[in-house]
Amino acid sequence: MPKFYETIFPNAVQYDLNDQELMEIESLLTQCILENKGVLSRQLDSYDRQYVAVINQQKEKEVWVNCECKRKYDTDSYKYRLVDVDDGGDCYFRVKVNLDKHKFHSFSVNGEA
């Protein structure tokens, strides 16, 4: 989805994550949830996650993480298309992770309808 990459990460190059990087992302997501427990009431394991990984303009590995509450029924649709939902509260949040700086940023949670 090149147009999507350009919207989130202008002038970036797609990147494939390895197992160690996935573990670091999980650690940073856990930290993000702990630091934002005033707006997030759920644990990390209650979310399905989508990752968009790139090498950014500064030559750093950066990942956009899109989180969606797990559903009682599994449609697997999140595996084939990016989830884009209005409202829904803390069932939907997104954050960027910089693997070279070992930090997260650009955290946002959907509003309530």
TrEMBL record:
It comes from the Bacteria. This is Uncharacterized protein. It comes from Dyadobacter beijingensis.
